[in-house]
Design a protein that fits this description.
single chain, Beta-Lactamase, 5 helices, about 15% strand, disordered N terminus
């Protein structure tokens, strides 16, 4: 079973690289990395292509030992999971059930955690906040306030972003390598408690 699933995964990856009709992002509000495979999903026309499309001759399928698919600067998986857990634990101690996302410098997920009893949507909102922190090079709360005073900054905002407090950029060696974001901690101003927890995730 593992072999079969692995083969399908390789076909998906190969098709994604080689086929010009590879979908998407799934729309302007799609999160970074949310790219849909070109089969086994309903099309807008209601069709369901169950099999992968033929691969062009000479297509190279990813194999063990190949170069990484992503080279974006990023926290390591170990760092990302520790940060996410620390932020979640901080919010839990404060009585909040939240979702936490740690992303790389391209905004793609490195680690996502949802607290026991938390709504599953929080991690996706957190990713949208993280995109703000990356675009502005600041906390998403600071970006929110900057937009109040300088409407021209709206040019940095995309439909995939949620411009509220809760995200903090992650720095290493003088550059931003990702962001950590939290969503689900209620309070006024909106996102303030989220941002406190996100910052706690960086204090390891």
């Amino acid at each position: 079973m593992k072999y079969a699933l692995g083969a399908v995964a390789l076909l998906i990856a190969g098709a994604a690289v080689a086929m010009p009709f590879h979908e998407i992002p799934a729309g302007p509000r799609a999160l970074p990395g949310d790219r849909l495979p070109p089969f086994a999903m309903l099309t807008d026309g209601g069709e369901l292509p169950l099999d992968p499309p033929p691969l062009p001759p000479g297509t190279h399928l990813p194999a063990p030992g190949d170069p990484p698919e992503s080279t974006a600067p990023a926290p390591s998986l170990k760092q990302a999971t520790r940060m996410a857990q620390a932020a979640l634990d901080d919010c839990t101690r404060r009585g909040f059930r939240v979702g936490v996302a740690v992303v790389d410098s391209a905004g793609e997920a490195r680690a996502m955690l949802t607290a026991d009893g938390a709504d599953g949507s929080h991690v996706f909102v957190a990713m949208r906040k993280a995109a703000v922190a990356l675009a502005f090079g600041s906390t998403s709360g600071e970006a929110h306030e900057a937009l109040r005073h300088d409407p021209a900054l709206k040019a940095k905002v995309t439909p995939a972003m949620f411009v509220e407090g809760g995200a903090v950029p992650i720095h290493a060696n003088g550059r931003i390598i990702g962001a950590i974001a939290v969503s689900g901690a209620a309070g006024i101003p909106v996102g303030h408690q989220d941002e406190v927890c996100a910052a706690a995730g960086l204090k390891l």
